[in-house]
Amino acid sequence: MIAALAPSLTFEVGGDVVRVRCSTVADGDFHIDGSRPALLHRRAAFEPGRWTQPDEVHGTVVRSVDRPGEHDLAVADAVITRCRGAVLAAWVGDCAPVVFIGDDGAIAAAHAGWSGALHGVLQATVTAMRAAAPAATVRAVLGPCIHACCYEFGPGLLQQFEERFGPQVVATTAWGTPALHMPAVVAAACAEVGVPLLDRSSCTGCHPDLYFSHRVRGQRGRQVMTISKRAAA
Questions:
Q1: Considering all CA atoms of the chain, what is the largest pairwise distance in Å, rounded to the nearest integer?
Q2: How far is it, in rounded angstroms, from Cα 222 to Cα 219?
Q3: Splitting the chain (233 residues) into consecutive groups of 10 residues, what average pLDDT does each group show?
Q4: Measured on CA atoms in the order 168, 9, 62, 128, is the torsion positive or negative?
Q5: Considering the domain boundaries, does residue 2 fall inside one?
Q6: Which among 86, 25, 32 is positioned nearest to 56, based on CA atoms?
Q7: What is the CATH number for 23?
Q8: In which region does residue 146 sit, left (phi positive, over 0), alpha (psi from -120 to 50) or beta (all else)?
Q9: How many other CB atoms are found less than 10 A from the CB of residue 146?
Q10: Res 132: pLDDT
Q11: What is the distance in angstroms between the CA of the first residue and the CA of the last residue of the chain?
Q12: What's the domain count of the chain?
């Protein structure tokens, strides 16, 4: 964990500026099933631009955004683009939001719950990014998600994760029961496709002043992690 405060990062890629942001409870609820006008208002206040915020279903579908705002609210768990002015968003309430930056100008946002992570949503996202540029270098950033201290996990599924990603993904909760180490899962998935990970996560379960948590507090609200690209000034 780097810090409890949600990350805001800026990268220069070619002639573009790529910005990564994570909301907190102070920015409001980004759940797509709420009031549409309220969601649009929160989006505009948080990150200006044309948003693509998919209807996440814990799967592995990756959509390509060819114009800003395309596929907004369409079913997918990851979205990629090369468009300036597009805002890609992964909204979460404990799952792992991961964004990707390619040196060829591609950016992506992915939602990795335990099911999507186990079945390869992060690897599928990187594969889609490299489809147009196989030699591209890609890096990833992990935002706030639930950590092992709060993430009790069933032994049967935990064994599947250990067999798939290695023993480093198995941990123990703060109260001594088996747990899944989600940041380690994300790191292992990224390593499989040769992507270095910058872990800027903090535990959504441990910070009620900053984050919504479905698993720990039963909250319906969701935070969002965005990535956007604009021409450098």
A1: 52
A2: 8
A3: 62 94 97 95 97 98 98 98 97 98 97 98 98 93 98 97 98 98 98 97 96 97 97 86
A4: negative
A5: no
A6: 32
A7: 3.60.140.10
A8: beta
A9: 28
A10: 86
A11: 33
A12: 1
The residues facing 140 across adjacent strands are: 100, 197
Asked if 88 contacts 107 with a C-beta cutoff of 8 angstroms, the reply is: yes
> Residue 191 contacts by C-beta under 8 Å, 6 or more apart in sequence?
197
Specify the pTM.
0.96
**1 in a domain, yes or no?**
no
In the block, tokens 């060819």 appear at 66
Q: What is the 3-state secondary structure (H, E, C) of 100-154?
A: EEECCCCEEEEEECHHHHHHCHHHHHHHHHHCCCCCCCEEEEECCECCHHHCECC
78-81/62-65 β-pairing: parallel
| The amino acid at 177 | T
Contacts of 143 (CB under 8 A, 6+ apart): 6, 7, 20, 22, 90, 92, 96, 97, 98, 99, 200, 201, 225
Asked whether residue 62 is domain-assigned, the answer is yes
Domain-embedded: residue 168: yes
The residue range of the domain holding 57 is 8-231
